[in-house]
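Standup notes, structure subgroup. Blocker cleared on the zinc ion input:
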Amino acid sequence: MSIVYLPPHRTGDLHYLKRLNRSAILEMIRQTPGLTRADIATQAQLTKATVGNSVQTLLGQGWLSEGELHKSSGGRPGRALHLNDEHFALLGAEVGVHGLRLVACTLSGNIIESHHEQVLPASPEATAHTLAQLLKELKARPSMADRHCLGIGIALPGPVDPAAPVLRLAPNLNWQDVRFLDLIRPLVPEATSIWLMDNEAKSAAFGELYFRTGNIPHSLAYVSLGTGIGGGMVTDQSPPQLSRGAQGLAGEIGHTVLQPNGQYCHCGNRGCAETLASGWAIRAALGIAEDINLVDAISARQHDEDVQYVLRRAGETLGILLLNLHHTQNAAEIVLGGSLVQLGPAFLAPAQRYFAANQNRLLGNGQKVRLRILDDATFVAARGAAAQVLATVIHGSNDLV
Ligand SMILES: [Zn+2]
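Run returned:
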């Protein structure tokens, strides 16, 4: 994996060069915890003095911590360097159709604090007010008192314009062209200088790759199974790169059409995958009201024939969707998350069976794409938005704090 050095736009600016070196060193340690100064000098082709000075600054600023002494074959033993998980906090939040989920994470992605608030769909303004209050409460918890907040990332249930922070459409909330950051930022003015927003499945995909430190796949597709169905595709670069498309629609797999004459979708088209396999479609098919928890309602009726039928049909649709995703994106790993994974084998097994039986038809070899189902995906998108904050800080052009 290569480190991307930011292009020096101010040639000869010593301050800027030092900033680049610190970013590169931080990124190396983030990807490979435990490196020593000598390892970094060799791998980054920097002088030992440059690495030593940069590491000293990063230790002083609270970015790094020193660990055990590593023996060396030739020179002096060196201290293992790690990200310092005690000094900073990254905040992430997800606006879901039926819930607001918030996390505070360390630099390594460990969750320090979290909160899940069940809500009913509301206007962008009302949602911003509720989320702002919850963010303030999270920041006020005792474990956050001595931490410096690096920024806040917000994941939203719809395509976000790649060129501007605008949520284009959230069909299951009935929101259109919402500048959500403009609504929430004035409500938490003291929080931080860095705010960002992205599509929830893209944030989740980003975080799933970014916070990994071993067995990092070449690329990863995240499928978000909740009230709607979303997708995010990320490739392993430094920082990881998300596929967005020209208008931010890349990954909107819930709105790929599987039945041209099928039922109307919330987007206005007919026969989208969401009309068969999403949380809202399952609710509609089984007559489960919006203010009742879907997973609880289904587990109470799990042996009913109609429930079995609807979940099996939804699972088979998901299998088709995964196969189409495999053939259009060919991610090295597909991760399934979202509240619907809690529906268990009645929903997931038909999808897994279909995918396993058909994924190798084109190549005919034994290589399998890993299909990973998260046990608990509650905070995946919020944590991913927090990961995007860290990537923005490390690879941005401002000073590192
Ligand atoms: Zn649709």
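Discussed briefly. The pocket of zinc ion is lined by residues 255, 265, 267, 269, 272, 274 (CB under 6 Å).
Next: hand off to the docking folks.
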